[in-house]
């Protein structure tokens, strides 16, 4: 997991260099980006199921997996943007969820 977070930190650094502040609150924009990525995952699911008669089977389940990874990474970048202790915050949250279900 450390390798993934190292990559997320690099991505956040790259984004920070692009000076998005002129476009508005960077924190807000990065959280909203999660919705955009979710939309792409939803589109991939529709395509994998062939649920859009106009497009047919336009995606595979591998495409869905890739889009879900984009959702996860985008959420990690957003979390890191609003909290420099993002890894600890996520670990604590997962632990709390496990405790709530008596799985810890």
Note the main sheet. Answer: none
Portion of residues in beta strands equals: under 5%
- Outline type: globular
- Report the radius of gyration as a whole number of Å: 17 Å
Helix-strand string? HHHH
Based on helices, strands and strand pairing, what is the structural class? mainly alpha
Uncertain residue segments:
none
Distance between the termini: 19 Å
Tell me how many strands there are.
0
Number of helices: 4
Helix content: over 70%
Output mean pLDDT: 94
Structure description:
By secondary structure, the chain is an all-alpha fold. It contains 4 helices and no strands. Helix 1 packs across helix 3 and helix 2 runs antiparallel to helix 3. It is globular. The mean pLDDT is 94.
Supply database-style keywords.
single chain; 4 helices; 104 residues; mainly alpha; 74% helix
List the helices and strands and how they pair.
Layout: H1 2-17, H2 26-49, H3 61-82, H4 86-100
Helix pairs in contact: 1-3, 2-3
Can you summarize this structure?
The protein has four helices and no strands. With 104 residues, the chain is mainly alpha-helical.
């Amino acid at each position: 997991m450390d390798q993934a977070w190292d990559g997320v930190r690099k991505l956040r650094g790259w984004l920070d260099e692009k000076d998005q502040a002129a476009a508005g609150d960077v924190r807000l924009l990065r959280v909203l980006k999660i919705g955009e990525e979710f939309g792409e995952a939803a589109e991939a699911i529709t395509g994998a199921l062939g649920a859009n008669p106009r497009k047919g089977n336009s995606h595979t389940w591998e495409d869905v997996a890739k889009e879900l990874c984009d959702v996860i990474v985008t959420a990690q970048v957003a979390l890191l943007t609003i909290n420099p202790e993002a890894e600890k915050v996520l670990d604590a949250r997962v632990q709390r969820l496990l405790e709530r279900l008596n799985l810890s």
